[in-house]
Amino acid sequence: MKTTTIWLAALAGLATGTHAASDGLAELSLEELVKTEITSVSRKSQSLTDVAAAAFVISAEDIRRSGAQSLPDILRMAPGVEVSQIDNGRYAVSVRGFNGRFANKLQVLVDGRSLYHPMFSGVLWELDPVPLDDIERIEIIRGAAGVMWGANAVSGLINIITRHTRNQAGAAVNVSAGNKGTGNLYARIGQATEDGSSWKLSFQGRHIEPSQLGRSGDSADRLNNGVVDFRLDRDLSGGSDLTLWANA
Predict the structure, then answer these.
(1) pLDDT digit string (tens) for 120-146?
(2) pTM for this structure?
(3) What is the DSSP string of 46-84?
């Protein structure tokens, strides 16, 4: 109760940052909906209707409208993705079966980089790889079509594509809180220059109180985590570009 009060006070004291403008699904025509671009199937931009795979795309607008505060909860929107919440701090995610805490048959990428933990070749889903507000879209491939990304893509592939820093100039603050001891804080600052350089620094912190099903005084399923994300982009000559990305 004390933690909830603190988060609600923070919500009242801070201004909520505006989200990046994007077309809602209701504003798109049928032709625009079927022309949704996807790059994870053949490593090049294609229309969703042209890819030879069972693919699904979750846009930034879908993420904002969902109200979800964690990546696994967002993945519940995709057909064929199995999301299990073990407790308030742990998740298990898989595609087409074989689900479990240490499932290792699903390839998970951020901008084409693998997120696998070296100890068990799986993903610790409660440790958000990037702040949710920095995600442009999530491309999900079910089946063996994602095998070109590595041998671990046995049952499917999830590719998290982040927003370009030129679209994140300025500052933003987003605070949300729930009535069961949950809270989320997101803050970002960035800048874009005329010479083709842009950068951004963002932070996301999450807090979830232990579930009421836990033993009295047991805080094993309490979640407190934060991610700091920095990215620098620069346009080079000849159509090339340079990206430096680091997070903790």
Answers:
(1) 777 888 777 888 888 998 988 887 766
(2) 0.74
(3) EETTT-SSEEEEEEHHHHHHH---SHHHHHTTSTTEEEE
pLDDT in tens, 195-236: 889 999 999 998 888 776 655 555 567 788 888 999 999 988
Q: Report the C-alpha gap between 13 and 7 in whole angstroms.
A: 10
The C-alpha atoms of residue 19 and residue 69 are separated, in whole angstroms, by 15
In this structure, the answer to whether residues 102 and 147 fall within a common structural domain is yes
Q: Which helix (H) or strand (E) holds 65?
A: helix 60-66
**In a domain? residue 11:** no
Is residue 38 located within the same domain as residue 135?
yes
Residue 48 is part of which domain span?
Answer: 21-162
In residues, how long is the chain?
A: 248
Which of 23-27, 84-88, 164-168, 217-221 comes out lowest in average pLDDT? 23-27
The pair of structure tokens assigned to 174 is 């987003």
